[in-house]
Amino acid sequence: MTSETDAFPAGFEWGTATAAHQIEGGNWNNDWWAWEHAPDTPCAEPSGDACDSWQRWEDDHALVSDLGLGGYRFSVEWSRIEPEEGEWSHAAVAHYRRQCEALRARGVEPTVTFHHFTTPRWVAAQGGWEDPATADRFAAFCGRLAGSLGDVIGRACTINEPNIVATMGWLLGLFPPGKSDRDLRLRVNDVFVDAHRKAVDAIRAAAPGVPVGLSLSMTEYQAVDGGEERRARMERAMEDVFLDATDGDDFLGVQVYTRQRLGPDGLLGPEAGVPVLPMGYEYWPQALEACLRRAWSVTAGRVPLLVTENGIGTDDDAQRMAYVETALRGVLGCLADGVDVRGYTYWSLLDNFEWALGYRPRFGLAAVDRQTFARTPKPSAAWFGSVARSNRLVPPPSTS
Ligand code: GCO
User: Fold this and answer.
1) 378 backbone dihedrals φ, ψ, rounded to 5°
2) Measuring from atom 6 of ligand 1, which residue has the nearest CA?
3) What distance in angstroms lies between residue 225's CA and the mean position of ligand 1's atoms?
4) Residue 164 Cβ < 6 Å to ligand 1
5) 359: Cβ below 6 Å to ligand 1?
6) Backbone phi, then psi, for 45, in 5-degree steps?
7) Which residue CA neighbors atom 4 of ligand 1 most closely?
8) End-to-end CA distance of the chain
9) Å from CA of 217 to ligand 1 middle
10) What are the pLDDT digits (tens) for 329-373?
């Protein structure tokens, strides 16, 4: 499934991404900060200062525009904007507005994610995503914020990877609130679906014309030796319930990193001979093509696709470039077969706080000094910028 050409269509969008809690620093008023400091936390380390991007966002923007990228996806921190129920920080909204205006002044389109894993403490204290009322709390937040930022947002992403939040928080217990309850996880899925639908309506009412969608974590699930039924079950619970919820959206953000193999008894570990990354999963860049094709098929081509995250946590920058090259080759294959992929966003701009794994996995196009917060672009940044500027899959520099 590869294509002959290395040229992307005119207007194909190139970008990179971050998330508030992973880069801003000092995000203490949300469930993740509490989780990181819980006595029995599974987190390798607290997020702390992160990349100090609450202060240094102009440095981040300079990196994005210096690379010649046309898009930057970042998230706002709900707990900064609404620190307590009904309390609204105009200063925090102004901060994010300045970011959007500065990006546009650089010719970079801002994609704003309204919820990227973190939930305000006051929401979590009232049941968080187990409580159906949170869908309304979130939609009200989205509508009010969209009313303030609608004229400077290029694209609105309601919720980042609701499937991961639900699974990691209510099934695997590695994310807050650290529960393990199959039925509860499915109910949380439903609250997220309701929240997304209501947020779409609220954003459209407040900011007519701003494209809106959600971003979904997808994995290439492969059935091995009779694993078909388990694969179907996994795809339904992890992905299809959300793919079905995107009907009427302006885009579907597809976020892919690897594959998972399933046998009749469930997940199988990495296959012998396939490299395993610091994240603990296989080096499998082919997954992007497979997931784009499946998303396109399940949604019957109703919603344009955007790759809103794809990348690799590795200390080997040549491996990063090889991964992205293979992933992009797969995107070209999808485009050649009529899959409507509008753009590709590399995760991430910066080495940042990788949730429960802390700062160990390094996804960034730029390294960040943990004391001085100096940003240092890696060779992969220059290469990715050359791909974006030429809109062609130019080969990575030879590592010989
Ligand atoms: C996710 C999140 C990002 C991660 C990235 C690497 O997809 O889990 O959107 O916050 O950092 O995917 O794991």
Assistant:
1) -95, 165
2) 354
3) 30
4) yes
5) no
6) -165, 160
7) 354
8) 28
9) 8
10) 999 999 999 999 999 999 999 999 999 999 999 999 999 999 999
* Amino acid making up residue 324: V
Task: Give residue-wise pLDDT tens across range 222-262.
Answer: 999 999 999 999 999 999 999 999 999 999 999 999 999 99
Residue nearest ligand 1's atom 7 by CA? 217
Does any ligand 1 atom lie closer than 6 A to the CB of residue 219?
A: no
Specify the length of the chain in residues: 400
Sign (positive or negative) of CA dihedral 379, 155, 329, 332: negative
* Separation of alpha carbons 89 and 95, rounded Å: 10
Q: Are 64 and 106 in contact (CB under 8 A)?
A: yes
CA distance 91 to 97: 10
Q: Is 383 in the pocket of ligand 1 (CB under 6 A)?
A: no
Q: Say if ligand 1 is within 6 A of residue 217 CB.
A: yes
What is the distance in A from the centroid of ligand 1 to the CA of 400? Answer: 31
Contact 188, 179 (CB under 8 A): no
Question: What is the DSSP-derived secondary structure letter of residue 67?
Answer: T
Ligand 1 mean position, distance from CA 116 (Å): 9
Report the Cα 213 to chain-centroid distance in Å. 12
Distance CA 354, CA 182 (A): 25
Q: Is 358 exposed, middle or buried (0-12, 13-18, 19+ CB in 10 A)?
A: middle
22-76 pLDDT per residue, tens: 999 999 999 999 999 999 999 999 999 999 999 999 999 999 999 999 999 999 9
Distance in Å, CA 335 to ligand 1 centroid: 25
Q: State whether the beta carbon of 351 lies less than 6 angstroms from ligand 1.
A: no
Cα distance between residue 292 and residue 311, in whole Å: 15
Q: Are strands 71-75 and 366-368 parallel, antiparallel or unpaired?
A: unpaired
Q: Distance between CA 193 and CA 190 in Å, rounded?
A: 5
What confidence tens digit (pLDDT) does each residue in 77-111 have? Answer: 999 999 999 999 999 999 999 999 999 999 999 99
Q: If you measure from the C-alpha of residue 67 to the centroid of ligand 1, how many angstroms do you get, rounded to a whole number?
A: 22
Which regions of the chain does DSSP assign to beta strands (E)?
Answer: 13-17, 71-75, 109-115, 155-160, 212-223, 251-263, 266-268, 305-310, 341-347, 366-368, 375-377
